[in-house]
Design brief:
Largest sheet: 3 strands, antiparallel
Structural class: alpha+beta
Strand order of the largest sheet: 1-2-3
Shape: globular
Number of helices: 3
Distance between the termini: 19 Å
Strand content: 15-25%
Number of strands: 3
Length: 89
């Protein structure tokens, strides 16, 4: 965090819109949930309309695990693998 706005700095592992979008697409495919990237966050939605906002990979893993029953570690691995295979930015 730089201190100017109070927003925490992005996780370098998934920093940038392309990496965040790639991780969202991969986690959606894994879980069947609608995972969408937004500025500095992901949104996760179920077919019934339940939604969560996630600021970190760990938050994303917790939400997907709770909402879809997918193993938390599998979510983290999937998100990070997709992000690392994508050029930054």
């Amino acid at each position: 965090m730089c201190g100017a706005c109070g927003h925490a700095a992005a996780d370098e592992r998934v920093a940038g819109p392309r990496r965040r979008a790639a991780s969202a697409a991969a986690v959606s495919a894994l879980s069947g949930l609608a995972v969408r990237p937004a500025l500095g966050i992901w949104t996760v939605a179920s077919a019934t309309g339940r939604q969560r906002v996630c600021a970190t990979v760990e938050d994303l893993a917790d939400a997907v695990s709770e909402m879809a029953g997918v193993d938390r570690q599998a979510v983290v691995a999937t998100a990070l693998e997709a992000a690392s295979a994508t050029p930054g930015g």
